[in-house]
Task: structure prediction
Amino acid sequence: MILPILAYGHPLLRKECQLIEQNSDDLQNLISNMWETMYNAEGVGLAAPQVGVNKKIFIIDANPLFSEDHEISDFEKLNSKKVFINPEITLINNDECSFNEGCLSIPDIRAEIKRPNTIRVNYYDENFNDNSKVFEGLLARVILHENDHINGVLFTDKISSFKRKIIEKKLDKIKKGKIETDYKMSFL
Ligand code: NI
Result:
């Protein structure tokens, strides 16, 4: 089932999410609805609070981000599409990189955002198996963006105050629902 995506300004996007204690039919339903919702909106990541669920889970499929001249590694082949439950992230080093980010909850706004390039993620997968993996580059970026969502943080929080002034009006329009998208959104 395709779920409406909460728009910027919705208070549920600002809440710290709760740990998921166990696997359940509800959880599996949520995961399947999240995949459907993300692909319908042509996103590369979606976090539960974006569909109004206050739980620590997000999904990613970063494949559309790889450019044609990028040779996809074996690791990327296996790990670009994933479910992360109760993730915990640690930095591997202080390397950062910049990338033009967007967000399904904040349509039509993009900005260069600096983020760490290499991270370790401890998480449960969709079968509640314990995992610990190192991700880098675009995969790390998408994971960090989605992980921010489950902590109530949005990428626009990381924009310089100068650039924020420029997008403030656009953000205000999204808040008021004065925006058209190809997917269903939910405004407060
Ligand atoms: Ni987002």
In short: Strands lie at 5-6, 45-47, 57-61, 81-91, 96-101, 111-116, 118-124, 130-136, 185-186. The radius of gyration is 16 Å. The pocket of nickel (II) ion is lined by residues 103-105, 145, 149 (CB under 6 Å). Residues 124 and 130 are 5 Å apart (CA to CA).
